[in-house]
Design a protein that fits this description.
Layout lengths: L8 E3 L2 E3 L3 E3 L15 H12 L4 E8 L16 H15 L4 E7 L7 H4 L4 E2 L13 E2 L2 H21 L3 E6 L4 H6 L14 H19 L4 E7 L10 H14 L3 E5 L24 H10 L4 E4 L5 H9 L4 E4 L1 H5 L3 H6 L15 H5 L11
Parallel strand pairs: 3-4, 3-12, 4-5, 5-8, 6-7, 8-9, 9-10, 10-11, 11-12
Antiparallel strand pairs: 1-2
The structure holds flavin mononucleotide and iron/sulfur cluster (SF4).
Flavin mononucleotide binds next to strand 4 and helix 10.
């Protein structure tokens, strides 16, 4: 198994120049009408010049009701699609691929942003939801599934090379997977098969819309790390079922904002406590035949090399590339120092003020 992070590889239909992925990162820079801004084109130009083989967009809502932030992008009309095309264009100049991440935030959406009722699998009080959401009807679920398909088709049309279904971190699909958030008694709740139905139907619908010659991945929690949340053995079985249906890759993350271990873990130190989701990532790598993408607290080239030698296919980085967008090029040029990101999460502060993500740690 190659441990060389700079060796080329494939992900479904994609030929990638190296093993580095920019993990999906909401940047707080989109226009409030959902279209991509010139500031985002610049951000992606910079990231693609920085060396990663594949860039994932921030989470794009599949409809306005699924939106959580005012600057969160949408991809439901031609204007939004054409604005994404500009990003696809600049990224290609650096032999970099672009993956659009698609989400519905469900109970984690904001009714202030969407001006619509909050919806979720079940009408339950949840520590993360602003109000008790309305339970989705089966016909509303089918509409959202179609929205995933339509949005994926627009992503392909805009020039993206792949789409990623966001099934992690406590958003709508993750809510369906979780026995805590999903207390339905119909075909979409109860058994693991039923809780996974939404995700499987989203995958099938997207495949129908984008065809067989297009890469589809998912980002899923190896575990929610919550009592009565999704656990690794179930999450892994769902990934196996999707593999049988033709899924091209799985990014393994973990946690929700209510979990003791969150998706964006703090105080990571290179060589000490990197990769907090290691146990789940290892389980996925051993069991699956499709590429596994490792994410969460990877800070050093040594850790990347070790993961690749253990069978992981791709290394996904988020915060290190906010601070040092050219980190991959620097590592390839011989830099030995690990990422200097301290995982303090202060980059969210300007984004929540509408000014876009920015590293606030001193040089
Ligand atoms: C500012 C910011 C925005 C993020 N936005 C998203 C997102 O849109 N979708 C997603 O799946 N994860 C998102 N994440 C989580 C990252 O993709 C990644 O899973 C997490 O930060 C752990 O990786 P890291 O230790 O390399 O930062 C975000 C993280 C940060 C810091
Ligand atoms: S503010 Fe800078 S150092 Fe802190 S997590 Fe964000 S990118 Fe890393």
């Amino acid at each position: 198994m190659s441990g060389n992070p700079f060796s080329p590889t494939t992900l479904g239909q994609l030929n990638l120049k190296n093993r580095f992925v920019r993990s999906a990162t909401w940047d707080g820079m989109g226009f409030t009408d959902g279209s991509f801004s010139p500031a985002q084109v610049e951000l992606y130009r910079n990231l693609s010049a920085g060396g990663s083989g594949l860039l994932t967009t921030g989470y794009i809502a599949v409809n306005p009701q699924g939106r959580r932030n005012p600057e969160q992008n949408l991809l439901s009309n031609l204007k939004q699609q054409q604005s994404l095309s500009k990003i696809a264009e600049v990224v290609k100049r650096h032999d970099t691929s672009l993956q659009a991440q698609l989400v519905h935030c469900g109970g984690l959406a904001s009714s202030q942003v969407s001006q619509q009722t909050l919806v979720a699998p079940s009408s339950v009080k949840h520590p993360l939801f602003e109000v008790v959401p309305q339970e989705l009807t089966e016909s509303e679920i089918k509409t959202i599934i179609t929205n995933f398909g339509e949005t994926a088709a627009r992503a392909r049309e805009a020039g993206c090379d792949s789409v990623q279904i966001h099934a992690a971190h406590g958003y709508l699909i993750s809510q369906f997977l979780s026995p805590f958030a999903n207390q339905r008694t119909d075909d979409y709740g109860g058994s693991r098969e039923n809780r996974a139905r939404m995700l499987l139907e989203c995958y099938k619908k997207i495949r129908e819309y984008v065809g067989s010659d297009f890469t589809i991945t998912i980002k899923i929690n190896g575990s929610d790390y919550l009592e009565n949340g999704l656990e690794c053995h179930e999450s892994l079985t769902v990934a196996q079922e999707l593999t049988d249906l033709g899924l091209d890759g799985v990014e393994v993350s973990g946690g929700t904002q209510a979990s003791p271990l969150t998706p964006v873990p703090q105080a990571i130190k290179a060589g000490k406590n990197e990769l907090p989701f290691a146990a789940e990532i290892n389980a996925f790598t051993k069991a699956l035949t499709i590429p596994v993408i490792a994410v969460g607290g990877i800070r050093s080239l040594e850790t990347a090399e070790k993961l690749l030698s253990e069978g992981v296919s791709l290394i996904s980085l988020c915060r290190p590339l906010i601070r040092e967008p050219d980190l991959v090029n620097q590592w390839q040029a011989g830099r030995e120092e690990a990422a200097t990101c301290s995982s303090c999460n202060r980059c969210f502060i300007p984004a929540f003020k509408g000014k876009g993500i920015k590293c606030l740690q001193k040089k």
